[in-house]
User: Fold these one by one.
Assistant:
Number 1:
Amino acid sequence: MAANRHTSCICREPRKHVVIHHVDEDPSNNDWDNLAVVCHDCHSRVTGDEGLGRSFSAGEVRKYKKEWESICAGERKDDGEDEPGETEYEVTTVAPGTHKTYEYDLEEGDLFTARVESDVPIDALFCRISAYRRWVREEAELSFLDGGESVYEREISCDADREGRHVLVIVNDEDGEDAVVRVDIAIWPDDEDANES
Ligand SMILES: [Zn+2]
């Protein structure tokens, strides 16, 4: 993900959710050359039967991957660079009746994106720190800006409408089992700030 700026190697459109695609469609083959970062749109263009909606062969995907990774590594020039200011990727366990937080100071206009996957249903909620603190003190329900409750998989994409500390909260309810959760976060600075620098 980092070697690809969390950006699809085919369309190279920043700020879209991306997944890791196994080029040979064998999920157990995790060789570097077999893994390509693609967005959902591109993913649907690289999977399935040849001719049935599939637009790119495995060889083409590997070519896109190599080109994009060399641009990301600074080995080649590219115009219109847009990369996340901050990223975090973690696989973690959340015990029943507990929660885990990922906290970030965002500027107004920053885009927060996260992809959360869990083997049991969890709540994945993005909120302001004030809402989180009220919830921890049991003064209020957790009022969130984006996210989902009781989900296996959730994509969050939220523009900060004001600056301040924001929190991604992963909650495993009391009756659950241990949740193994994969969290992939990218923060994209406001476009205007990016252009100034
Ligand atoms: Zn794409």
Number 2:
Amino acid sequence: MSENQNQNPEGEEMTTQAAASSSLASISSENLGKRAPGTKPLGAGLEARGVHAWFGKHHALANVSLDFSAGTVTALIGPSGCGKSTFIRTLNRMHEFIPSAAMAGEVLLDGKDVYAAGTDVTKIRLQIGMVFQKPNPFPSMTIGENVLSGIKLAQLKVENKDDLLEECLVRAGLWKEVKDRLGAHAGGLSGGQQQRLCIARSLAVKPKVLLMDEPCSALDPGSTLRIEDTINELSSSMTIIIVTHNMQQAARVSDYTAFFLSEGGPGQMIEVAPTSEIFSRPRDKRTENYVSGRFG
Ligand SMILES: Nc1ncnc2c1ncn2[C@@H]1O[C@H](COP(=O)(O)OP(=O)(O)OP(=O)(O)O)[C@@H](O)[C@H]1O
Ligand SMILES: [Mg+2]
């Protein structure tokens, strides 16, 4: 929530809304070609079909269908309260932990409904990891223990824990900064380092999909760019879904962008398209108004 939507990388205010969205489109186009989404044999990806969510009688989300191809990064954007967090919590069955919460619809991981009867929810959460807005490492555990905590909890067998530890910290872009203090408490890391530690912790259980709910909103610009680099690196080996209020970030990291909106009723997915299209020629007027900063 706290990030500016209408600032260019130098931090200057954009003079016109048109300039803002055309610059976002060009950032996104520059990004194209850096990665080749979906070219690795990563499975079928994730698919939401007709997802609805309720909190008690409050219908928070209506009929969202979205396809996340394996190896792509999708940004979810939209004004506060339109259901972005609710939606991503339905994807790994976190939603059902909220008292009074209900959902309808299907979420297919590699073609199999994660809500099918008899599905082991713990296994689903290992395959679909999540990184939250506020970094949440275990502060009294060491850095190393944090990374391996998911492995321990799920009682997964690992041949060489030191190798896994290094691999996850390298992939999360934190290895160089912590390699000499793996035994130090995680609470002593900066906010940006803690967030990368949480990413490393998610990676240790080898998820197919990583859900990120505003992972940079509490971070300074330097840490934000570092996490965006991490997302770019990770996207060759997994499917990533990121909620962001920062249009520049959506333009920099994502292949596809989905715009959510609630117009007095439940939140809906208004439009999804390749990110450069969402910023240059959105089909829906409401998307255009939002990405050009006219509301939200
Ligand atoms: N735990 C909850 N209990 C009851 N209602 C909730 C709960 N969480 C969210 N809601 C409601 O569901 C709707 C969607 O909220 P959600 O948090 O998904 O929005 P969001 O798009 O993530 O917003 P933001 O950008 O502010 O994070 C809102 O009306 C919100 O008040
Ligand atoms: Mg949210």
